[in-house]
Structures are given as structure tokens and as C-alpha cells.
Amino acid sequence: MPGKVKCIGILTGGxxxxxxxxxxxxxxxxxxxxxxQVIGIRDGCRGLGDKHMAALGxxxxxxxxxxxxxxxxxxxxxxxxHLIEKDKSGKIHYHDRSRDxxxxxxxxxxxxxxxxxxxxxxxxxNKLSHMGLKIIGVPxxxxxxxxxxxxxxxxxxxxxxxTEAIDRLHTVAxxxxxxxxxxxxxxxxxxxxxxxxxxxxGDIILIPEIPYDEKKVGEAVLERxxxxxxxxxxxxxxxxxxxxxxxxxxxxxxxxxxxxxxxGISRQLAHHLExxxxxxTRSVILGHVVRGGTPxxxxxxxxxxxxxxxxxxxxxxxFGRMVALRNNRMSSVPLVQVGGKTRKVPANHxxxxxxxxxxxxxGA
Amino acid sequence: MPGKVKCIGILTGGxxxxxxxxxxxxxxxxxxxxxxQVIGIRDGCRGLGDKHMAALGxxxxxxxxxxxxxxxxxxxxxxxxHLIEKDKSGKIHYHDRSRDxxxxxxxxxxxxxxxxxxxxxxxxxNKLSHMGLKIIGVPxxxxxxxxxxxxxxxxxxxxxxxTEAIDRLHTVAxxxxxxxxxxxxxxxxxxxxxxxxxxxxGDIILIPEIPYDEKKVGEAVLERxxxxxxxxxxxxxxxxxxxxxxxxxxxxxxxxxxxxxxxGISRQLAHHLExxxxxxTRSVILGHVVRGGTPxxxxxxxxxxxxxxxxxxxxxxxFGRMVALRNNRMSSVPLVQVGGKTRKVPANHxxxxxxxxxxxxxGA
Amino acid sequence: MPGKVKCIGILTGGxxxxxxxxxxxxxxxxxxxxxxQVIGIRDGCRGLGDKHMAALGxxxxxxxxxxxxxxxxxxxxxxxxHLIEKDKSGKIHYHDRSRDxxxxxxxxxxxxxxxxxxxxxxxxxNKLSHMGLKIIGVPxxxxxxxxxxxxxxxxxxxxxxxTEAIDRLHTVAxxxxxxxxxxxxxxxxxxxxxxxxxxxxGDIILIPEIPYDEKKVGEAVLERxxxxxxxxxxxxxxxxxxxxxxxxxxxxxxxxxxxxxxxGISRQLAHHLExxxxxxTRSVILGHVVRGGTPxxxxxxxxxxxxxxxxxxxxxxxFGRMVALRNNRMSSVPLVQVGGKTRKVPANHxxxxxxxxxxxxxGA
Amino acid sequence: MPGKVKCIGILTGGxxxxxxxxxxxxxxxxxxxxxxQVIGIRDGCRGLGDKHMAALGxxxxxxxxxxxxxxxxxxxxxxxxHLIEKDKSGKIHYHDRSRDxxxxxxxxxxxxxxxxxxxxxxxxxNKLSHMGLKIIGVPxxxxxxxxxxxxxxxxxxxxxxxTEAIDRLHTVAxxxxxxxxxxxxxxxxxxxxxxxxxxxxGDIILIPEIPYDEKKVGEAVLERxxxxxxxxxxxxxxxxxxxxxxxxxxxxxxxxxxxxxxxGISRQLAHHLExxxxxxTRSVILGHVVRGGTPxxxxxxxxxxxxxxxxxxxxxxxFGRMVALRNNRMSSVPLVQVGGKTRKVPANHxxxxxxxxxxxxxGA
Lengths: 364, 364, 364, 364
Fold this sequence. Notes:
The structure is a homotetramer. By secondary structure, chain A is an alpha/beta fold. Chain A contains 10 helices and 15 strands. In chain A, helix 1 links the parallel strand 1 (about 5-10) and strand 2. The longest helix of chain A has 22 residues, at about 155-175. Chain A starts with 6 loop residues before the first strand and ends in a 7-residue tail after the last helix. At the A-B interface, helix 1, helix 5, helix 6, helix 9 and helix 10 of A face helix 1, helix 5, helix 6, helix 9 and helix 10 of B.
């Protein structure tokens, strides 16, 4: 039996996501019940280097269940193995600042770490684990595209917000006999556009996994007109692209040299559709709205289960793993199986088949 | 290969539930795609006898996805095998009116039936199936207590509404340092109270599966006070009851001779708690509010999958079955395995274990 | 010109109400801009005697705009002029504990007080003002029944929550061809039931100002049936009562000897309606749910305007007044004109006339 | 006394707006009570020429209260006095098609018209009135920029939706220490951005009435940083512009030759802010989402009052007027005073003064 862990650290990395605080709350409350000290690391992996750490007492778990975002702060560009630094001339350099992490943690007494994050954070978590640190990962992404778990918290909330927006846009499209194209986050996987598209009664759904044919999208709109349906709702993932085409990329992040997509496929498609079909077309980019605010009941419960499961793994000494939901039950997978991959929507997924059965077009 | 079904009937039985219209929509849209005629039966099983039937055209599937309730109407007291009738003196008699059903269906050309409902409706569906009719059941209950499926549509919506109400009551309890007891539907199974209780940050959760000790409920409240937490939220399923006690039953339904619970356990408990602990206590009974209105995105998608799956079973000639969600995938089970049973919350369910781990009391 | 006030106190009294924190935030932020110190008094008027006071810094105004309830705590039974105390035998005595208040305030340096509350708190505020203290009142009640202001914050939120609940109940009533009676807070004034009743499409609205005739309520339901409308929604204020009848009173508050209404008129009426009309009838009591949670945008803005207006009055040295909304503009009225009165719905109010014009029955 | 009108027409013009159906419902229900026939004109003013008209029976007022958009359809480019037509070569011509309108109305028996719409529709309504037709206008615009009425329905709903979105974006900004710029509809008047900006706790609010200085916006962000507030929310009306600058215009509507703004000021400002301040900045354009979906309780009630007031004016024979809310009461104004004007936010409006008092910057 492993020696009991007395003090753990917790950090939230990557883009923010409804339910992060619900996980933190579950971890803190579970720890309080078991006499374990919890130390919060500020601003994601940046805190590991900067030593921004503070003890989380019992009260810190209170009143945060419904709170969006993360009370710990996050950062999606501070990979300690590949830290971006600008020199005086503005040139960008990358450095490996991971060497000091074990020492930093030891100094404040942290014996094990719970790391909440997406693909990038799980890759870091895995590397830290290979350095000999005791790490538990907790999967987080509104996109639901993380390997190893059937669902991540935040996804249901994002689907709900997007669906509510689509509900609203239906009345706008109907009143004016328009096509409205709604662009929804999802660079590499279409789960969010697919689920909110079906739930929102979208007529055409375009996802990265199924490159579309602009002509067929136009035909689907005109076919609906012929049947007397004067408006159409097109739900498009930001990463969707025409056959042979590419994602629209708008600019380069000046801090990270990373390419940033500001949304654009919906505008490009709106222009095309209106020009070809002659039907008035408008586009709306939901953007960051879908990742903020109070988590749904579903996500609060999933986040709570994940937080408790992380503590279970710690008490059993099963490190180097990410908690997971598999076949409707709490489970876990080795961190090494998670990072650097993307869980895409399979082309014959039952949601896609169901959507096709009720007449939804995927533009292909 | 079975002869292709050309015309189906559809009815919604039992208490109403968010998502019924989403299933009807999916069935109608799928049928339109496959050249199958759909006939809607009015007001649940009553329509089978009364011949209240009308064809549902393509347009009838439009604009109902977001609509709560059922466009077909329902009835939760017209079991055709056990129909309640009052004679002139007001005395109640039961009759078996099932004999005419096959003839009634044949007259309008219905070859197979899709029956949406809960435990009672699935029992009727099974009996009709045994009479030789081609029946597909679709599970529906906000309580999520139906055998054979991991989840029913409507449940997530009810959990969401109840959670939102609990969120509101927190601020009331906090401002006044009160105990607030929220009573939530769930006569025999505590899924709804359990899920909304955890998602809503309930401090004490009482469900039918775990008879509670009033003394321990009071102690849990006072223990929280000692820790400086001046308010407490108790979430109680209407069917919860003290050890050795019984559900509170308020009156007899004058139409059905059925015992009707109007809510009461929360009032009884509030009275008890206030008297024993001296802490101001209020009770709120959410009642029918949790079963109405627009379904969540989750429930719309589950309902759509169920509707399409029902049509798949029909096309494959697999009758006498209920569509089901099992291990996160569409599936089906024989109707005979469903009726007359209740899927209760297992005492060691991971939600209960997680809740205990973060300090929730079950009063036991 | 009056000497500039350097330090103010703020307290929230009476039942909690969405928007209290938005007022506190506006007062703190305005004070910070003007170099004024703010001291928060805990738990309503109780804090005046108990000396539970703490400085509110700039950060205390952050992140509370959307929060329901009050961060200061409240109490609706600690009138310092008439304090309830129990002796050892449990007997209740009333004491005037107001004498020490000026001294208590002076000790911490408070020169002027902002008191948020309803009728009771404004009465206390007026008495404190007559003792020579510098007092500004801010009107608060979900019932909107306070004299001197066209609207109070919290009311719009309560109307919204109640309307959303009525929306949900429509689908339940429609699916089952039932009458559903929704009981909504409002002991003496029917603003809440009236506004949510019209907004929720209620068919019959019963308010305290218009005693109803049970027979006419039944007739209205049956008349709807005759026109083919199988369901009806009755919206009833908790203080509504039949002609010649009285409000239903359920019990006596053991702490305050005050009579407490737990809701009941809806149950009584449901029983009566079902028995007389033979139509299935259910009742739902929304209770405290309508007073909790995040305020609407309307109430946040009204609360912010009120908070700033309170600070304006302080800077002008206009004490003994309550801030008010009059003819769509910020204004103020002498406190003496507010307490001990109730702003009821006039029988010919344009909302009542409009409701009647579209066929709503008031049961009279 | 004027001869009683027996048959009226109703149409909805301009951009859609939550509450249009609530007005239609009130008009239909009031008309049913008074034995007046209502005829719905399809697709705004286009229907006046195309003779797309259909009687609205009692049932047409049912179940539409909560529905966004308009059951009659709308059009915002079919001014009958200035109709756009393309010739074969694609060239655009304008025609006056108003001459036939009286005849078209007479043919179906319409004696008076209720016209719901914004500035453009009220201008048309006024011209029709001058042609001798009996016209009542009902003010509609989410922007609340219509002359003659203190408020229009739809505005409160749009404010609510925008505020909820800003709530969500706060958690995103906080978690990542970012500036987020939210762009909200409002070309010429800033009511929507102002109300949702204050209600949403915006730190900087930019409206068309107060041209901003980009430098001061940047300073406001940096000043917040210095005070330890790492994130900032900038709420910007689409029509806001820098001092000496102009609204961003993206393209020309190919149908109407009208200039269409697709949003852009927020992107332009984000780019500028990030470059100058070095603080990560993101922009979100809410777009059409704020004009769709279920109206708030407030807007349903205002719409109902407006609908009934329109019928009152008809019964009194007071034509050529627009119904209005003035000083919290139903009123009316001559149509001639409404069209062609814009009700802007006065620079010293109490909302602006209040916002400044609590530290909000207007960038000026």
C-alpha cells in the first residue's frame, strides 16, 4: 500500500470551460473529508514556474459550484517544456523551464498534482509524470475531442448555449425567409456543432470530419425552398472546410506565434450561398460565449464525479492516469494514451446517421 | 425479410415529459424520408378506443422540437385493459376494452404502433404486442426509473429545472440563515432528487431508496452550523420517508381511485426540523414545474435518437421491443423485460459515493 | 452646504430580493470614486445592535452584480424598536433596543446610513431618521407594493421567474387537458400575480384586490371548455381570497409570534374547482423560488440607479428620504410617506383593463 | 361618433423583434371579444401589394405569446412607396406601388390597419394615413430608438440576451486575464449597449452618441490593470466610432443597394487595443442572436398593452396615431411625429451619469 498523500496541488490549464470550479470544489471538499491539504496553483502551468501558489481552505470550495471559468486562473500558452519568451528585439524563443518544477512543488510540500486541462495540458501532465511526479489528469474541453473519455465536462454546457442561440436564430430566419449560418467553436472535431445542430433543429450541419461541397449546401437550401420551407439554418463548426479546402485562418497571435482563427468560414460561406442561390443569407459567430457562465446540471455532476475520482486515484496511489467516463461509469486511462490525439466524430456515428434519417444535410 | 410497413400509428401515454414532441418529430421526419404514413393517436391509449386519429403530414414535424408536452395529448388513466368507468351512482368499475384495438387500427390502415410512455404504457405496449400487434416502445419518464435503458428523455430537463430552482433557493437560505427543504418529484426512485441535489449543491439529500433518520438530518444541519455554515439546503424526493415510515399520501384521485401524493414529506420534515433544531426552516414543493417546457439540448438529442431508432426497428421488423440507451449507444430490449418494474438508485451508485465523499448527508 | 459625509453604513433588511447586491455594489463603487468609507452592517437591523459591522473595500463590490440574495445577510424579524426576545420559559417579550444605535454607529464612525428594505425597514428607517440619524432608504420588495416609487427592484426578476414557471405549466395542462392553479407570492398586493399572469398567458387571474367568486372561476373554466380549450391556467396571488372570505393562514412563526402563510389558497381552490367542474385540477405553489437567484438586466439597472441615487442624496445632504423611480426617472420621497402603507393594484389599472380586453377572467 | 370598424388588417414590418406575436395575439383576442374580423397581411408591406392576406381566427392568437419572430412574416426592404426592383440586366429601379393599396384593402374588406414596425414602417404608416387610410402604428424595435415612446417592446429582451452573454464572457475574461470586446446591435442609438453594458458589469461602454478616443479606451484598460483587475469587458454598440471616425461598413446588400454593416468596430478596436496595450484582447459580435426567441415577461406585457391600446384607438376612431408608453402609462402620438427621426441617448441621461459614478469609462 502506498504511503498516504498529505498535500496535493491543483491547477487548471488551457481555455476556460464551465465546470472547472465544480471539479476544484469536489477536490477541496473530498480532501477536507480526508484530512488532505490542497494548494492551488495560479494561472495554469505558468504557476508551476512562478510559484504562484496558495492553500485552499474548506471555504474555498463554497459557492463556486455554479461559477463559470476557474477561480485559479488559467493560461493556454505557458507550456513549461516549451515556454515562449520574447527577447528585446521582439524575437520569440522557446525554453524548457520544467527542470525547476519538482523543486518548486517540494518547497511548498506538494506530493501529488491534479491537472485539469485539454489535450495540451494532458501532454504536459504526461511529461511531468515521466519526470517522476505523481500526476492525475482531469479531462476538460468544451469540444469533447479528448481521447480516452466518452465525455468531458463543459461540452454539455457549450451545446446548451449554442442550442439556445440557434433556437433564437430560427425565429429570425423564419420571419425574414432567410438562411442563417451559425458558426460554432470546434477546430478539429465537430461534436459541438453536431450536437447543437441536431438539438437546435439545424437543416444543414457542416463539421471538420466531413468536408463539404458548396454546391450541395446550396442545393439543400433550394430544395427546402421548393418544399415550401422558406428559411434554413446552417450550423457550421469553425474548423469545417470545403472539400479540398482548408480552415480559414485569420491571423497570428503576437504572443505565441500561434495561428489564431477568428471565425470566418461562416462569412465566406454566407457570401457564396447568397451569390449562388439568391437567398438572403446572414452569418453569426457565437465565439467565446459558448465557453462561459454557469455549467449545466449535467456538467456539474460530471465535474463532481471527476473531482472525486481524481481523489480516489490519489488515495489508491494510481498516478500517471487521467480520470474518464467510459460506458456511463467513472474510470481512468493512462495519461500517455491521451495527449497529442484528437477524438473526432466517426463518419458513421449514430448521431450522424440519425440526423441523416430525419433529412439533415451534411453538404457532402 | 419482413414486408415493408407502409403506415404506422404513434401515441404518447402517461404523464407529460419534455422531449415527447422531439420523438414525434423524428418519427414523422424519418417516415417522410422513407415514404411511410404516420397516424397520430390522440390522448394516449384513450385514442385507441375512441378512434381519435389523424394523419401527421411533413409539416406536423416542424416547429415542435422545442415544444414541451405532447402535440398528441396524453392521458395517464386510460389503460385499455383496465379502463375505469363510473356508473350513475358514481361507483367505479374496470373494463377490458382492448378487444377492439386491432380492428380500430386496421380500419385506418395502421400496421405498426410506436408507443411513447413510462412503466404503465410499456406494460400496455407489451400486452398489445402479445395480442399480435407490431409494437415498438419508446421509454419516457422524467424520473428515469424505467427498466432496460440507462436514461430516459425528459430526465435531464427535469434535473436542470430542479437544479436552477435549488440555485435560487441557496441565495434565499444564505441571506436568512435558514434551512430550506426542496421537494422534488420521484415517488419510487430518487434519480431526480439525487442528480439535482448534487448539481444544486444540496447539503442533505433524501431519496426513497435510503430511508432517513430524522435525528440524523437534524444533526447534519447543526453540524453545519457548528462549522460556521448558517444555511442548509435539503433536497428531498417526494417518495422519501423516514426509517419505518411511509410516503405521505394526501388524497384519492376521484377519477381513478388512485392514491395521489400532493407533496407533503417536505412540510412534515420542515416542521420537525424547526421544532427540534430551533433553526428557521422553509419548504418548497417544485411539483409539476419540473416536467414542463422546452427540453434541454441533451433531451432533444436523446429523443431524436430514440425516434430514429424506433423507425430502424420497424424497418428491420423487430417488434415487441423498447428502444434503449445502453452504455452510451442506441439499443433495444424486449418489452416484456420493462413493465411492472422500477429502476431504483443502487445504494452504492457512484453518484451516492461521490456525494458522500464531498460531505453530503443522506440522513442515514 | 452640508459638511461632506466621510463614512457611511449600509444594511439590507426584510426578505431577500434579487438586486440587493447590485445596490450594495453601486454604493461601494460610487463611494470609492468619492473617497467615502463604507461599512457593512450584518444581518439587517440586528447588526445595528449586535455591532456586526465590517468595512467594505473596493473589492467587495466586485463580482456581486449577478448574485442573488445579499452578501450582508438580512433578517426580517429584528425590528430594533420592537425586538422579540424569549425568556427561559419560552414566553415572548418585546423590547425597544433602539437607544444604543446612535452610539453604536458613532463608535465605528458611521455618519449616515443607507437602509435597503421593504415596508417594515422603511418604517424603522423613518424612526431612526426622527431620532436625528442621517438616513437614506432604498425600496426593495419583489411584491412591488411599496408606497412612493413606481417600481422596486426584484419585482421584474420575480415576474420573470414566475412567468417561466407558468410557461412550463402550460405544456403540462395542455397535454393532460387539466386546470393548473399556480400560486404566487403576494400577500396584500397582486402586482406579481397580475404581471406574471398576463405575461404567462394565464386564463384566470386572482389577486387580493379583487375578491373572487368561486362560482365564476368555475364558469370561466367551463366556458373555455365549451370553446374547445381543454386546459386552463389559473394564476393566483397567495393573498387572494373569495368574496367574504379571508386569506388562508397556516401557522404561527414560533420565533416571532407572527402568522405565517405557507400557501394554501391554491389547494383549497383546486379542491373546489375539481369537485364542482369535474375537470382534473392540480395546484403548484412557487414559493420562495421567485425571490432567489440572479436579477434580470432590468433589476440590475434599477438597483444600480437606486444605489447611485442614494449616494447623490448623501452628497447633497438630503436625508430622511427614500430613493424612488417616478415617471421613469430617479427621484426621492420623504421616508415618512412610505412606511405602514401598501401600494395595491387599482381596480381600473391599465393592466387589468388590458387583461379583460383579451378575455382574461378575474373571477369577479 | 365614428362608425364602428368591423374588419381590420394587421402587418409586421422591418427587422423581427421579440413580442411581435404578443401584439398580434392581443389584437386578435381583443377583436374576438368585440366581434371584429382580423386579416393578417403576410411578409410586411410586401403583402399589401401582393395581396397575401388571410383571416386570423380566435385560434390564431393561441400559443404564440411566447414565440419569437412574427407568424405573419416580415420584410425590411419592401417600402411600397419606393419598391426595389431589378431589371433583367440586374440594374436596380425604384417604383411607387402605393396606389393600389387602398383598392387591395377594400377588396378584402379591411377598413383600418394596425402596422407594427420601426422607423421605416412608421414612415410608411404615416404616408398611408395621409392617403386617407385609417392607420394605427405600433412601435417595434430592439434598439429602442423610436421617437414618441419611452420604450418599445423587444428592447428588454435584447438587453436580457446581451446581458446574459456578457455574464458568460466575464468568466472567460477573468480566467485568462483578457480584454473581451462585445459588439451589440445599435447603429444610431446606444440604448442596447448602454443598458446591457451596465447590467452586465461592463467596464468600458462605447456608444454612437459619445465618439470615443482609442487612447482613452486603452488607458482605461491599463488603469484597471494597475488596480489589480486583470480582465476588462468592453461593450460596444455596432454604430460606435472613434472621434472623427465613422461606422465600419462592410458591404452592400445586393438586393436593396443598402449598405449593410456586418460588425467590425469590435474587431478593429480589438486589434488596436492589443497592439497598443499588449493585453490579450478578443472580440465577440452577438449579431442577430439578440433579436430572436421568446420575449421577456416585461416585453410580453408591454406588447399586450400596445395591442389592446391599438384596438382602443380603433374603437375611438383615433387614427393616424402610434400607440406609445409615456411616463409609465399607455398613450399615443401622431404618426407624423415619429418617422424619420432617431431617439438617441442624451449625453447626460441618468444611466450614463450613474455608470460614470460607479467608474464606467465611455472612452471620452
